[in-house]
Amino acid sequence: MVDRENPESERIRVAAEVIRKGGLVAFPTETVYGLGANTFDTKAVARIFEAKNRPYDNPTIVHVAKRSDVYKLAREVPVIVEELTERFWPGPLTLLLKKADHVPRPRSPGEITLRMPNHNVALALISESNLPISAPSANISGGVSPTTAQHVYKDLAGRIEIILDGGPTEVGVESTVLDLTSPVPTILRPGGVTLEDLKEILDTVRVHPVAEAEHKIEVEARAPGMKYKHYSPKADVVLVEGDVTRMIKKIGELADENAQEGLKVGIMATEETAHFYRHDTVVKIVGSRRNLKTVARNLFDVLRAFDEDGVDVIIAEGVVTKEIGLAIMNRLRKSAGFNIVRV
Predict the structure, then answer these.
(1) Which of 25-29, 196-200, 212-216, 233-237 has the lowest mean pLDDT?
(2) Residue 107 has pLDDT above 70, yes or no
């Protein structure tokens, strides 16, 4: 365990040395746990893809410890970056920019995704390494993202050198990815910095259809979360969206249908609705509809908990797509493989 407020310098030094020597270190951020390697060591970065079974055209995010690092790693940086990073860094905003020529990014030629995490352990590791650290989420590719060190251990034990345990993450879903190479700034993946937050600074900003995730779209993987299967537990997931009253009724019907087929059913509910469901199903409360940040924080942990309980199918409630609800629904829609029932 590493103190998240005041990380022990010796533990950080050991992990930083592993990074410098080409090893892999899992570390906490405010969003999810990342699996990090030296960005300038192409063999080390390739090991990330091998450890995760990650498709090689699915790019990683480069994590930095100072706002000024943007200008060392990217070129033709738009003026708005200064205001965005002053407001949202450190924090869950990733910027897609044009790559500086000296930065090796063979999987995403010409572009780079950059962010400064809001977690003292992550910042200490990057600073002590004195290197930008490339890091996707620290889990097997396609599966549920890790929000605790225990999640990382279950997925990657024996595949990586070190896991820095900084406790559970706070945001719970990955960072927002904002494309600043397009004529109009475009959200490629919704996350902890919301569309509403960005509108306070940007004159115009759009949400890419792949970020809305209302249906499957074939696109190039310019940023994590765009192209491939993501956030999926072992159980099948069915997402029910719409009016809350009709949604509760439909979930009950689906639970009965699956139970009659001999399947073990799990229902992902909210504090306000959980009491409506039958007690012979596995009902787990993910958070409150009145505070969707609690849903985001618990989402991946609850999906993993259903797998621990051995359910065959998870029927999940949808939420509104305002503020962080857009990120929650992006994850749930993709977790369900777009198996969505709208009522």
Answers:
(1) 212-216
(2) no
The predicted structure's pLDDT at residue 106 = 67
Taking the domains of the chain in order of start, what are their residue ranges?
Answer: 9-212, 236-342
- Between CA 38 and CA 224, with CA 44 as vertex, the angle to 5 degrees is 75
What span, in angstroms and rounded, lies between the C-alpha atoms of 40 and 21?
A: 11
> What CATH fold (topology level) applies to the domain 236-342?
Rossmann fold (3.40.50)
Question: Residue 77's CB: how many other CB atoms inside 10 A?
Answer: 18
Residue 220: the pLDDT is: 73
The pLDDT mean for the chain works out to: 95
Cross-strand bridge partners of residue 313? 236, 265
Q: Looking up tokens 């993450």, which residue turns up? A: 169
Residue 55: its pLDDT value, please?
A: 84
Answer whether the bond into residue 90 is a cis peptide, omega within 30°. yes
Express each pLDDT in 120-170 by its tens digit: 999 999 999 999 999 999 999 999 999 999 999 999 999 999 999 999 999
Closest among 270, 277, 263, 278 to 310, alpha carbons compared: 263
Architecture of domain 9-212: Alpha-Beta Complex (3.90)
Q: What pLDDT, in 10s, does the model give residues 222-248? A: 777 776 667 889 999 999 999 999 999
